[in-house]
## 1
Amino acid sequence: MNARLKPYEATQTPDARVLRGDARTVLGRLADDSVNLIVTSPPYADQRKHTYGGVAPDDYVAWFLPIATELKRVLQPDGSFVLNIKERVVDGERHTYVMELICALRAQGWRWTEEYIWHKKNCYPGRWPNRFRDAWERCLHFTREKHFKMYQDAVRVPTGDWAKSRLRNLSDTDRRRDESHVGSGFGKKIENWIGRDLAYPTNVLHLATECGNRNHSAAFPRALPEWFIKLFTEPGDVVLDPFVGSGTTLFAALELGRSAIGIDLDPDYVARVQTAIDELGIQRRLLEEPARYATADE
Ligand SMILES: C[S@@+](CC[C@H](N)C(=O)[O-])C[C@H]1O[C@@H](n2cnc3c(N)ncnc32)[C@H](O)[C@@H]1O
């Protein structure tokens, strides 16, 4: 096995690396506890066999578990792992491998902290005899520990016009804390929202797909990794995508001032991502070089 890569240091200028090979073995080159966030969209079971390696639905959990073992080793204890995945339809019904994978990951020691939904605003049109268009995918959030890094303020959204009209005429109930009527223990005081321009988002991300110009048939929109990077890391942290494809996660991380590591089996994707990283590096160096102006006597 190759020697382990020197981990990024929090103080260094954000940088990116892309490594070619099977994630299962290449992950072995990363040091323990060396990344803060993993965001990835692995090959979906069998789905795109002709464009990149597929895994049979029945074999999916067994294929993924050794990779997850490595992911757990390289993730810092207060880090997060976001897995974008959606079960495919086999013989007219949804296969259960995603649910089985969640249970298997929990058995491996991961905490299944949350499930976010990526609502694909522009999903493919179509008609099926037994279901409607598939307009969402799961973004499963796993953590190693109960307490993990989370920067909720970084993803606040404008409260919007609904708040203005809702807050214009407050009732007596709105002015005091209204305890849940179903005994859930949750209460709310609507008056607290006066003067607030930003609110916390829900766990549904409404984003359009954007495969055009990416040379990859299954790229996710840049806004997807971006949102999780803002939520679970701070500048200087390290983001990993073990199935990096066209490099969406890497470029989102760099743009946000985080370092990034990507892995992919496909040499063409790796070469393209590497070229783009090199070009970015050149651009950055040009931007960072202090402007030099000639003096009158030069
Ligand atoms: C769903 S795509 C990822 C797309 C990526 N999120 C993007 O925005 O471009 C999955 C990627 O995993 C890669 N892949 C498949 N099997 C792999 C393996 N065993 N190790 C590493 N990469 C693999 C494929 O080449 C493909 O690029």
## 2
Amino acid sequence: MPILETVGPELNRSAPRPAAPSRSAQRKFATLPAPALEWNERIERETAPLYARIKNVVPPNEWPFFAPYVAAINTIKKQRNAVILAHNYQTPEIYHCVADFVGDSLQLAREATKVNADVIVQAGVHFMAETAKILNPGKTVLIPDSRAGCSLATSITGEDVRLLRERFPGVPVVTYVNTSAEVKAESDICCTSSNALQVVESLGADKVIFIPDQYLAKYVASQTKVKIIAWKGSCEVHERFTGDELALIRSNDPTIQIIAHPECPPDVIAAADFTGSTAHMIDFVRTKKPKRVVLVTECSMADNVQAELPDVEFVRPCNLCPHMKRITLPKILDSLLHMKEEVVVDPAIAAKARRAVERMIYLKS
Ligand code: SF4
């Protein structure tokens, strides 16, 4: 079914303001001494099993730079009783060598409910760290660079959602997790790209407001009879792909498998063999093991899957997310040593947002 209506930021001109990082974790936990960060025989020996995981995608001459940070982070994590949650778009040395849990937004949100640690470091973007904090109000949540934002999260504010509710009274609001805590707090239920269709249909409504990704909204609308009112947000990474570039790749190799993320525009999805969340894309490649494949999503995901499946040939194009790429090993180490930057969410907003996130997490499949 086509989208019923797409509305946009002209409803409300105020831009969301990111919260200033809190310093309370720095007061609560002592700063730890900086490690030596030398490449030597001991570090080489200790980190060899970790390098073996990524040797297909990280050249040997780069490992002496990464290895001292990997060793230091893994030691300090234990001292802090900390865990690292890493999104599928993190680089291989983070994803395969220091992360305790990896996955897409839904998997990370679910893991965040089970974390048994004092400190959570989010290797991802700010809304993911906020989600971890919402689900763990008593734990310290850090993000190694609080400027790691998201074009979807900044496209809409809590005030926008209140105006949408005024304009479409009684229509439930389904909110993609790529949003601020304030926006989640104004929503009935959250969703991810893994479960968006299931969440929309779970409400039993003939019409829903689906925010903020217009392309994910179109993809969901194409699969359901529920009428969708969309918001004009988009992912600056996925909207850059075009159907024409995929047609060119296909004309060079008609047997290639093209797998697209549903944040891509409709002509890209039409040109793909399969569409799914990053977790579903990874499952597709793991199970089907195509000879050649294009993952139409952020670049690092192909590297992370390539590290695990060296026999599959990954054909680029891919686009980098500048926000995800703000997270690096040196910043993760700095974050753990100095307990910065702490993510705080107003408790009243967190309580309302938690209802929307937990309603999604505990949805029966
Ligand atoms: S890839 Fe897109 S949706 Fe994901 S964090 Fe970057 S801008 Fe946001």
## 3
Amino acid sequence: MRVTSLVSLLALAAPLASAFTLSAPTNPTSGEVTEIHWTFKATDPATFDLFLMNSTQAFGLVAFLGTELETDLGQITTLLPALPAGDDYQLRAVNVENVDIVLAFSPVFAVAA
Ligand SMILES: *[C@@H]1O[C@H](CO)[C@@H](O)[C@H](O)[C@H]1NC(C)=O
């Protein structure tokens, strides 16, 4: 019981450490333009890198969607690369100097072909 609650706390700790939140894009389609939105607090880093991931893989990098994006923009419009249709996509915002420092994950979302 005690071990279980400790594990739950650790799992929660990473997302709570940052105020940054990343939304899933709305109806994203392979090879088409999509909008990506995020929210932030003044304490978040001024820039970040944005990755498109396959959420079922630990290191499932699919594409770089942006490098050194300005946090205070709050959104970008970007062209998605040609992608296989699937339900397992996820955005990941990371620290520009250390990609292992994750600012936020988006919810998992589907991309249409
Ligand atoms: C994500 O990875 C899994 C496991 O390798 C694979 O079966 C699936 O097709 C991948 N999804 C996409 C959208 O590439």
## 4
Amino acid sequence: MDTKITLAIIAAVGIAALSFTATSSYAAGNGAELASKNGCMACHAIDKKVLGPAYKEVAKKYKGNADAVAMLSKKIKDGSTGVWGPIPMPANGPKVSDADIKILAEWVLATN
Ligand code: HEC
């Protein structure tokens, strides 16, 4: 009987610890997941240039820019051209929702 209760308590604490870890890494994990789910990683990588710039370079370029999330959200949604080279980025909205785009912009800016 006692052993069962002890085991139940250990299990409950374990589950609480697991869900805490999942919650605290939610934003970053979700950004990475959204980026692969929405095909961003076909043209981007975190630390090297593919067709588009490395996300780390993007994060570095806009570091300290208070408007960066709004500005990049608009670029991700409507497309971008002429910032990183001659290859344009096609629009990703409305296929990707505004809410997901904001998470993606924040995630990109946090890769640095
Ligand atoms: C077809 C290839 C392609 C896809 C798919 C793509 N990108 Fe891009 N991305 C580019 C290119 C090329 C650029 C550089 C555009 C430029 O020079 O203005 C770019 C630029 C960017 C920038 C920087 C914009 C700036 O103004 O500095 C961000 C942020 C970005 N992409 C995020 C994303 C996200 C998030 C997704 C997925 C929803 C995505 N990209 C999908 C090719 C792509």
